[in-house]
Amino acid sequence: MSEIQGILRSNGAFKSEMMEAFLCNRLNATTLTSVDSEGNLMTPPSPTTTIPSTTQSVNTNNQAIDNRPQFQNDNFNKTTATASDNNNRNGNGNGNGNTQSAAASNVTDPNANTESDVLLLEVQKPISSEERQLIKNVTEAIVSNHLETCLNTYQNVADAERKIDANMAAGNMPDMSKMSGNASCVWQKFVSQMVPEITKAVKFCNRLPGFSQIKPEDKMVLIKQASFEILVTRFCMLINTETGDMIDPSLSIKFPRQALQSMPMGQLLLEFYKIAEKFNPLALTDGEIGLFTSILVMSPDRAGSQSKADVEKIQGLFKQAIYLQLKENHTDADSIYTKLMATIPIFRDINEKHTQALSKMKMAAPEEFSNSFPSLHQEMYSQ
After folding, report:
1. Per the record, which residues fall in region Disordered (predicted)?
2. What is the CATH superfamily name and number for domain 127-381?
């Protein structure tokens, strides 16, 4: 039995009759409803009405916004066509010889949707009362799962940084900026800390709602292809984009950017900063980060997956869950959601670079590769 399978068997999975009914299309979807900001049922929504927040917030982060805004939706009224668009399309930008008036070229298509609109339409569709309850249950389960399998919360990272700074000021900790000459030793310490992080990522996947209904072979596909993206998401919390410092996964040492660059695979580590510069400003709560990583796991387009329909359905549910959570905690939820979804290709890109870097290292020095990386790491990421 592989190490990954051993982790899966030793940890419980989320089980819910309502989730099973959802995947089998047995949930009652005949009475579509919406709710107001207080969780009260409303009359069936018009096409321009969207889903408001759930009754209670499961956010445990101190940075959550307490004053929950009334739900608003301006996205269905956005248009994309402009006069210049129409003129350029017709090949007559100066308008000469055009019998149409200038005003006519300004007519926009009321049904035109931007890419952001399409993303929002996916999560703003009406839901039944049973689906609403399912989303609430799923949100609570994922947030709890994340907090139990992730050390990197806002509070923990802030506490660790204060402790590290105090130890450095007292001379009780080496100056990592001067450790570039011993980069290999520092790298081995970093790699050794990956094993517990990978283990926690596997546990997180296994406890996701709906994961137990996925075929066993597809579970391995999702875990192997998504686990590094989970780690990168969690490591973003460790990066201070202003100072350039990064705390190690065990929250015990702080590395300056130049020290990371000198390590083996240092260029890959620097890719973390590019993601953090886009991801961290979104100011997601701890719970929202957990919900986002659940979306990364349940990606129906993973290579080799045979359960695409089920995975896509589960991911759609998770997207609704994070959108409703954003509505509770942020006044600019629509903007945050679209920006957040736009980061997914960036996580995919660094995932691919990580795979390529490991493959090159293994081909160049197979024995060194085998000695450098723990067996769980090799099973997870080696091709």
Report:
1. 36-111
2. Retinoid X Receptor (1.10.565.10)
